[in-house]
Amino acid sequence: MSGKSMIIQGKKIIHTGVNYIFAPLPLFDKAQSLQFQAKLEEQKVEITVANYNVAQINLLRQGTSPLEIKLMNPGQNLGQLLIIVPEPSYSLELLEEEIERILLAFQEVWPLEGKQILSSDITFRILADSIREHAFQEIWESLLGQKPEKLSVLGKQVQGGGLRLVLNNQEPRQNEEPIVEVRIESFLNDPKKVFMETQFIWKKPESIHQSIDTSRIHRVEEFLEEKVFAFLRSREL
Prior knowledge:
The protein is elongated. Strands 1, 2, 3, 4, 5, 6, 7, 8, 9 and 10 form a ten-stranded antiparallel beta sheet that branches. It is an alpha+beta fold. Helix 1 crosses helix 2. The chain has one domain. The protein has four helices and ten strands. A hairpin with a 5-residue loop joins strand 3 and strand 4.
């Protein structure tokens, strides 16, 4: 199937999420919440709002570079750490560095050595401008090399759509590798924009020997830059 490269401009990250489920549940109280904030400050991670209850710590940074950090109890004897960066105002490299600093601060308060990560996932969502009036045209015609009249068999106007790819891992240690999902779609709220999501999901439980492996964040960032964007530029599918 022959196609042309997609032409997209002005790529902007609109969501970054890093999520860990681990066991056993770490003890978190008001004192540890304050200690975590202090460790974040040492790591140059600013927090402007802090909320605490017996089941959840929620830390926020408001302003031009928002951030949300949640520590929760999602189930019996389970802990969850969720880091969300909506619309970061800095580069992927700086974003990666900040998330690594958050994880370092977290582990200074709640050492994870000897615990298990039951599952984890890392998600990047990006919006970009299409040169077409409707981004789905760019996906359907330029990326997939399809003719617009092929859609007429559906009998209705196509409001939007795209691709969802679940990638099969061919590595020898396949059971230790993540599931990778890629979505490339027209953005329903603004059809001139292309919505892209890349998610790595690790489902196999793993023991933590010393600390959380922060290199995974770089791995997802590298895949996005070197694989997903290259796929959009490719001329032969």
